[in-house]
Amino acid sequence: MKHDSSSARAETQTGEADWKKIVVRYQTPSIGRAVWQIVNTLVPYFALWYLMYLALPVSYWLVVPLAVLAGAFLVRAFIIFHDCGHGSFFKSQRANHIWGGITGVLTFTPYYHWRWEHSVHHSSSGDLDRRGTGDVWTLTVQEYLESSRWKRFSYRMVRNPLILFVIAPLFLFLIWQRLPNPKANLRERLSVYWTNLALLVIAGGLIWAFGWKAYLLIQLIVLMVAGTSGVWLFYVQHQFEGVYWERGEKWDYATAALQGSSFYKLPRLLQWFSGNIGFHHIHHLSSRIPNYHLQKCHDAEPLFQTVKPITLFASFKSFTFRLWDEQRRKLVGYGHLRAIRKQRREAARS
């Protein structure tokens, strides 16, 4: 599926001209749905930790599956955190900040710091000239060919699935989120320090209750499941066949949202655990729509139903994408480089 930039912009100016009028209908938070989502997410999550405490003296074989399930609930807790960061979960911004801070500690992520960096991602997603903040490192084919040997090696390492989906999530949540960005303001830096302090206190209490070996095993499994799932969701939402990328002067916000963010159509259970984040095209068009309104918005509005969904099975093709080919306007694998080098050698001989 290819996207021509001129036709994409034309579609944006016609069929998508009234998108602001559409999304505003779904931007009003519901305190009832918000509170219920907190209850049906955090209560089971804490209950699973208590069950792991009870199961620990019996067998680790009982603890491990409970930890995996707790990791799934932590993904859902991150969606609450995510919506609070966008100011969409509650109507009250104070409530968003309070619950954003609480779920931020649970997900090992400083609320105000993440909120600041994530806002950059939303304002620049799909813009080739503004890559580098809150996204997956992506080079164009030309940039890769012109890079040093060390940079190409580093890029291949970072984009390796084992690194990207196993090692990187643990590094991101355990280490990277503990350090403030040098460009961050005081409030953002303080959120990092307060989150770190809260995590130390909580870890101390759980180590006292479980013992340090059991705590590390459980916490690592929970974070691995949540982190790997979260990174995969984020990856496939912006690295898929037919994705939109454009240079700054041609970049269009609505087109970047509807064609540069996927409609990831997951099975119902996975959609529930991932807090409807598969409707990412709608979320990028309007981040003020709470996650619990995304399904309703999609089902009611023809504009969003024209976006081709990516199924769970089809999404695995994203594993093969490595570089953005500006000439062909598509993501390609490393195998594409061999064809380019061959063409250049033939051109040089002629």
Question: Nutshell version of this structure?
Answer:
The chain has helices at 5-13, 19-23, 31-55, 60-85, 93-106, 111-124, 141-146, 149-159, 161-174, 186-210, 212-238, 253-260, 268-273, 280-285, 291-300, 302-305, 312-315, 335-349, and strands at 139-140, 263-265, 309-311, 323-325, 330-332. With 350 residues, it is mainly alpha-helical. It has one domain.
Explain the layout of strands and helices.
Elements: H1 5-13, H2 19-23, H3 31-55, H4 60-85, H5 93-106, H6 111-124, E1 139-140, H7 141-146, H8 149-159, H9 161-174, H10 186-210, H11 212-238, H12 253-260, E2 263-265, H13 268-273, H14 280-285, H15 291-300, H16 302-305, E3 309-311, H17 312-315, E4 323-325, E5 330-332, H18 335-349
Parallel strand pairs: 1-4, 2-3
Antiparallel strand pairs: 4-5
Helix pairs in contact: 3-4, 4-5, 4-11, 5-10, 6-10, 9-11, 10-11
Protein architecture, described:
- With 350 residues, the protein is mostly helical.
- It has one domain.
- Helix content is 65%, strand content 4%.
- The strands form two sheets. The chain has a three-stranded mixed beta sheet. Strands 2-3 form a two-stranded parallel ribbon.
- Strand 4 (323-325) and strand 5 form a beta hairpin.
- The radius of gyration is 21 Å and the shape is globular.
